[in-house]
Amino acid sequence: MPKSGKINCGDMLHYDFEQTEIILLQDDITKLPVDAIVNAANSSLLGGGGVDGAIHRSAGKQLLEECKTLFGCNTGDAKITKGYQLPAKYVIHTVGPVWNDGKYNEDNLLTSCYQKSLELALLHNIKTIAFPNISTGVYHFPKNRAAIIATHTVKTFIKAHPHAFQQIYFVTFDEENYSLYQKLLRTA
Ligand code: AR6
């Protein structure tokens, strides 16, 4: 069950996929009362800008203290902490690849971020999870390519684990990502 409350958001689109509801919304991920939100972190796991900065600000200092005990995270991998002052119970920190013309395994590393995050969620019996658009900010991964990877990887995982998740959220921050996801999700 979500930690608290009900999510009310105007621009929220729902797609039934197998036993899981995929939800697209444009919002601040730190506001969501889901079991887990995913953080687009860097390999230090000690905070930064963008969504990472917003998550650390909202969660409070205890999040940084727990992150210090994790000794970083490799690109493409994921680690979990509590959510502290966030409405979400957990934060899953994953490290996306920096886009470098696609010559450095970026596609596979981004796929791995979504996969490893979902595997960790499964281990912790997380039923509702929200993803930001990993690597599409300061790491400059092309947005359309990242959205194709995100939606494909999540759907593949759902097919392999049809009873694992009640709801998986794609939380976009900008219009461009919102319409890219909308196009991709409405085609089965
Ligand atoms: N809620 C949802 N999405 C957000 C929010 C928010 N509050 N804030 C930003 N976004 P970025 P990256 C979107 O740059 O590219 C950090 O400094 C944003 O519009 O946060 O993976 C880390 O410490 C974009 O679409 O992450 C790393 O050093 C998406 O989140 C580095 O940035 C990801 O943008 C990671 O870069």
Structure in words:
With 188 residues, the protein is α/β, with parallel strands linked by helices. The chain has a single domain (23-186), classed as Leucine Aminopeptidase, subunit E, domain 1 (3-Layer(aba) Sandwich), CATH 3.40.220.10. Helices cover 35% and strands 21% of the residues. The chain is built from 5 helices and 7 strands; from the N terminus they run βββααββαβαβα. The protein has helices spanning 50-59, 61-68, 106-123, 143-160, 175-186; strands at 12-17, 20-26, 36-41, 78-82, 90-95, 128-131, 167-172. It has a 7-stranded mixed sheet with strand order 1-2-7-6-3-5-4, sandwiched between helices. α4 (143-160) crosses α5 (175-186). The longest helix has 18 residues, at 106-123. The two termini are 27 Å apart. The model is unreliable at 1-5 (pLDDT under 50). Ligand AR6 binds next to β3 and α1.
